[in-house]
Amino acid sequence: MKRKAHGIERRHATTSRLAGHAGWRERGLGSAAGYLLLVLLAAGTGCQAPDSIREYRFQGSSMGTTFEVKVVASLLAEQRQEAVREAIQAQLQDVDGKMSTYRKASEISRLNRSRETTPQPLSRETFTVLAEAQRISRVTGGAFDITVGPLVNAWGFGPAPQPASSPTAAEIEKLKLRSGWAKMELYPRDSTILKQEPALYLDLSAIAKGYAVDRISEVLVEMNITRHMVELGGEVRTSGRNAGGNLWRIAIEKPVSGDRAFQRILPLENLAVATSGDYRNFREAEDGHLSHTIDPRTGRPVRHELASVSVVATSCMRADGYATALMVLGEDEGYRLAAEQDLAVLFLVRTRQGSFRERETPAFQRLFGAKPTGTGPDTERESGS
Ligand code: ADP
Ligand code: MG
């Protein structure tokens, strides 16, 4: 596999029709790259769209990554297109402005700076994301943990300047002491948070992109645009059908850093898919290839043969969070948990030959059908890379 030495993989921002802003910078919330999930147009065999049905595309960059929204509608007047563009931008700015650790003035940054240990008020939006994060932490036994922020920073994957060297075992232990998802208490009634540990520092990068995707999709529905596809940094949500009247076709990338080839294409209707991987956002350090996913149990970047995890769910926020959690747990533990929670998940596991093995949960197979070569619910399939 080709990897950049001592560099961080970056996705070049696409030209923006929406004024992009620096946001969470490269590798901010957006983990740089996102996993190019190409959305294929309906194949020619599908039913022909009526002449007035068209697809409109809105692209740009936000939250340290790029986005693309496709809207299917009969002729949208220029004014209406402008309204859609503004609605998308407003959602992105709102999430970024509240939840980015790359913005000093964001709500989360203020909370992170505060040493207050009494309940502090949060916006409904940030509270929603924290509550979901805590739920995923509980379900995954802490594999997902937004309080790993200080460790993310120490390993060079946060807004803090990149450290000259990896943290020592003693430093890791110290940072672990000030983290832990159970040290935040959430009170839904008045939307407040209590930090039991004054130095608790929250990093929403693994879940806020998915939340932003949900928000954009919801605002489009409110605007009566029920047929659309929203993608931000590789996290996707679809609604209704594409312009050809068929299911949206979302491609899952082969988990290699150089090429951009497809591993699988998922036909989706009213579903979201989020992918976590170790092949786009990583650092080469003296102690090897460092993933940006931190195992909260060890305080270190995860290291295993799991190359990517794609989770399909109705909520993109949930899919996003679980994808990171399963990436932490690894192939076996992750599979067990995903099956037990009835999550629809595709695991791509690196083989010694340099190819990938697919592992699908039963819920995933129910959605997309078992592979023809499958031999049971826990289908494994080899694929060339
Ligand atoms: P991916 O698409 O690979 O899941 P994300 O951007 O969704 O990437 O999430 C990775 C980011 O989440 C990291 O850069 C870090 O800020 C944060 N993070 C790392 N490990 C964890 C973890 N165990 N729980 C929650 N967030 C994490
Ligand atoms: Mg994630």
Question: How would you summarize what this structure contains?
Answer:
The protein has 8 helices and 19 strands.
Topology (elements, then pairings):
Layout: E1 39-40, E2 53-62, E3 65-74, H1 78-99, H2 107-113, E4 120-121, H3 124-139, H4 149-154, H5 169-177, E5 184-187, E6 192-195, H6 208-222, E7 228-232, E8 235-239, E9 248-253, E10 262-268, E11 272-277, E12 282-285, E13 288-291, E14 294-295, E15 300-301, E16 306-313, H7 316-340, E17 344-350, E18 356-360, H8 362-368, E19 380-383
Antiparallel strand pairs: 1-9, 2-3, 3-7, 4-6, 5-6, 7-8, 8-11, 9-10, 11-16, 12-13, 14-15, 16-17, 17-18, 18-19
Describe the fold and architecture.
The chain has 385 residues and is α+β, with helices and mostly antiparallel strands. The protein has a domain at 116-195: T-fold (Orthogonal Bundle). The protein is 28% helix and 25% strand. The chain has eight helices and 19 strands. The protein has helices at 78-99, 107-113, 124-139, 149-154, 169-177, 208-222, 316-340, 362-368; strands spanning 39-40, 53-62, 65-74, 120-121, 184-187, 192-195, 228-232, 235-239, 248-253, 262-268, 272-277, 282-285, 288-291, 294-295, 300-301, 306-313, 344-350, 356-360, 380-383. Strands 2-3-7-8-11-16-17-18-19 form a nine-stranded antiparallel sheet. A three-stranded antiparallel sheet has the order 1-9-10, with no helix packed on it. A three-stranded antiparallel sheet has the order 4-6-5, with helices on one face. β5 and β6 form a beta hairpin. It starts with 38 loop residues before the first strand and ends with a strand. The structure holds adenosine-5'-diphosphate and magnesium ion. Magnesium ion is lined by residues 206, 274, 276, 320, 323-324.
